[in-house]
Design a protein that fits this description.
The structure is a homodimer.
Chain A (H helix, E strand, L loop, with lengths): L14 H4 L12 H15 L6 H7 L14 H13 L15 H19 L4 H6 L14 H13 L4 H30 L17 H11 L3 H17 L16
Helix pairs in contact in A: 2-4, 5-8, 7-8, 8-10
Chain A binds a DNA duplex through loops.
DNA sequence: ACCTGAACACCGTTCAAGT
DNA sequence: ACCTGAACACCGTTCAAGT
């Protein structure tokens, strides 16, 4: 009744599926087109500006027309999340098959998701907080195909079922925390258009440490932090394997 | 103009401040009372049910009455986040002064925030995603007082300014990722009231690894995961200190 | 001084009606 | 087959009016 899964086309009668041709009506409307437009709209105008009527206008249509292809606003947002996460499939730097070992695999997956987060900073909070379909679907890796893939790679590499699941959980937490904070920092600089008014950086007189450390806190070390934390996580994961099977040079030598 | 800081009472003329007595009008209305009621309302009914009119009714008042004490809905939400995070100050297990070393301090802080997240699972996504006031205010540790406190403890313990800032960033990412995923998992079990219909756990026939690992994925290991990841983070942080000053038994002996 | 009624602009959603 | 106009219930917010 609520949140009917969008784009799971199994049995779902969409106008396009009925029409024989993959084509569209006179307005070129289409579920794919609507979801893609929604992503672009959020990228350009921010999540809070997305409204059924405005998205309709963005598509040259009257807003209620969207309900022919989308069950409602909630389902639309679910579709937006799915659309954005699915970009991982077409990322040339993240080849499912062409990885050399689980370390390489997890690194590519992590960087692929980071690229998505940075490409859609306004969408990412949605990826992070939308209630998942199943309890074990953890943001930001919300695709069954990728979870399956990750678990397969890990178990093939010699991790026990328990450990593979633990790695999946740790990996999700790491990605979610880092990426959500990185896009939030991105947003706060370009975000609310307020004039600094009188105080250029508020009143920090009561906070001497904050005041002294402000230069250190304001530098954007997101990329380095991400890399370091990822390496630390991989080191920790490697310890789950019997010594013999551990990849050799995990501890950076640079 | 937007998001005027609530409860920063400096110069803000509230009815209570004008009335001499700390008391209230005939309805007992009050900014504190409104924010506390909003938190309770979200705890009980969920964030998406919170509306000005419903919150008004919850307080026995007409909804527009709230605008006398709160600039608007956005500011109300900011106030809710601040209210919940401020619970850390009155947590008896998290004493600012009575800590023995930075390890103990970070552990107490982490567990205090985890307690808050679990106490208000419906509020926490708000804590996680509300745009922070300054770029270096990172969720979920959104209080200037606590950031100041953390930086002070770390530098006093011998960490450089750069390293103290790095620890603050790593600590925030760790907390955000773990706690957001933990409350999300909590919500998905009690969340949407759907009937399982026909398929008790969807169709996993195309995902053999998922299918086989489902028991491992469904167990709630949040507490253990949190503890382990926290220990790993503390170990990693300790390496930033010169060997001499490192706390002795960080690697668990259990 | 504090709350309410009425009003405004906007929202999501449904459905009969147009083409 | 596809889109729109009109309608409904609900929002956030403002403000003159009540007590």
């Amino acid at each position: 009744m609520e949140d009917p899964d969008i784009s799971q086309a199994s049995g779902g009668e969409t106008p396009a599926s009925r029409a024989g041709t993959t084509g569209a009506g006179r307005s070129g409307l289409d579920q794919r087109r609507i979801l893609d437009a929604a992503v672009r709209f959020i990228d350009e105008n921010g999540l809070r500006m997305l409204t059924m009527q405005r998205l309709g206008a963005y598509l040259g249509v009257e807003g209620m027309a969207l309900y022919r292809y989308v069950p409602g606003r909630e389902a639309l947002l679910d579709g937006v999340v799915e659309t954005v996460v699915d970009e991982l499939f077409s990322d040339p730097h993240v080849h499912l098959e062409a990885h050399s070992g689980w370390v390489d695999y997890l690194q590519r997956l992590a960087h692929g998701l980071r690229r998505i987060a940075l490409a859609h900073p306004e969408v990412f909070p949605l990826v992070a907080t939308r209630p998942p379909a199943a309890p074990w679907v953890r943001p930001p890796l919300r695709s069954l195909r990728w979870i399956e893939s990750l678990l397969g790679v890990m178990t093939d590499a010699g991790f026990s079922d328990e450990n593979a699941a633990a790695v999946y959980r740790a990996f999700s937490s790491f990605l979610l925390g880092h990426l959500l904070l990185e896009v939030a920092a991105h947003g706060v600089e370009t975000g609310p258009v307020e004039e600094p008014d009188v105080s250029p950086s508020e009143d920090l007189s009561d906070y001497p440490n904050l005041q002294r450390l402000e230069p250190h806190l304001s530098v954007d070390a997101a990329a380095e932090d991400f890399e370091e934390a990822l390496e630390a996580l991989l080191d920790r994961v490697a310890l789950l394997l019997p010594r013999r099977r551990r990849p050799a040079r995990l501890t950076k030598d640079k």
